[in-house]
Each structure stands twice: as C-alpha cells, then as structure tokens.
Automatic annotation (TrEMBL):
GO terms for molecular function: monooxygenase activity. The keyword Oxidoreductase applies. It comes from the Eukaryota. The lineage of its organism: Eukaryota, Fungi, Dikarya, Ascomycota, Pezizomycotina. PROSITE patterns: ABM. SUPFAM superfamilies: Dimeric alpha+beta barrel. This is Putative antibiotic biosynthesis monooxygenase. InterPro entries: ABM_dom, Dimeric_a/b-barrel. Keywords: Monooxygenase, Oxidoreductase. Residues 6-94 form the ABM domain.
Length: 107
C-alpha cells in the first residue's frame, strides 16, 4: 500500500545580506506551524556549512494537510516576507522516504 505522506525538500537562496531576515521569518512561521498545524509532522531548516542558504525539510500527513499549510494566511505572510529577499524562486522537490530514523518521541 502506498504511503499518503508527502515529503518536500525546499532550497531558499537569500540575496547577499538577507540571510538573517529569511531565517527570522522562518523562525516565526515554523513556530506557528508547531503551535497550529498539528498534522504537519516535520518542518525544519538546515544551513549548509559553506553557504548562506536554507534547506527546508517538510513532512505532511497527506495532500489535504499540505493544501491547508500552503493555503493558510501565515504561509502567505511568510511568502510575502521572504520573496523579495531571495535570489530566485524557492526550489521545491518532492521526495519519498527510503530508510532511516525520522524522529523519536520524548520520554
């Protein structure tokens, strides 16, 4: 049976001098997700060691979860905040889980 879960990997490339602004907007938006999007299972940002870029890793329970995420006023606000700070449109790639550890519950 195929998984209904949806994974995305998103690359954001800020303009010179705009990295911290993008990071702060992400922090605000990710806090909203943590507090309000209970079906969004993974939403984190990584910074490659040698670049001022963000790699976002996202996991949604299903297509409805992703649609609700992308249709929220908070997503629109985040997009408006970071859009002018980026050198190019976000590079979004769908992905599938292959193997590994997705997380651990806190005891």
């Amino acid at each position: 049976m195929a998984s209904r879960e949806i994974y995305n990997v998103v690359k954001l490339v800020p303009k010179p001098g705009k990295f911290n602004e993008v990071v702060e907007a992400f922090k605000t938006f990710s806090q909203h997700i943590q507090d309000n999007e209970l079906k969004t299972q993974i939403y984190l940002a990584l910074r490659p060691t040698d670049k001022e870029e963000l790699i976002l890793v996202e996991k949604y329970t299903d297509g409805d979860n992703l649609k609700a995420h992308m249709g929220s006023p908070e997503f629109m606000q985040f997009s408006r905040a970071v859009g002018p700070c980026l050198t190019q449109a976000p590079e979004i790639r769908g992905a599938t889980f292959v193997a590994g550890l997705e997380g651990r519950s806190k005891l």
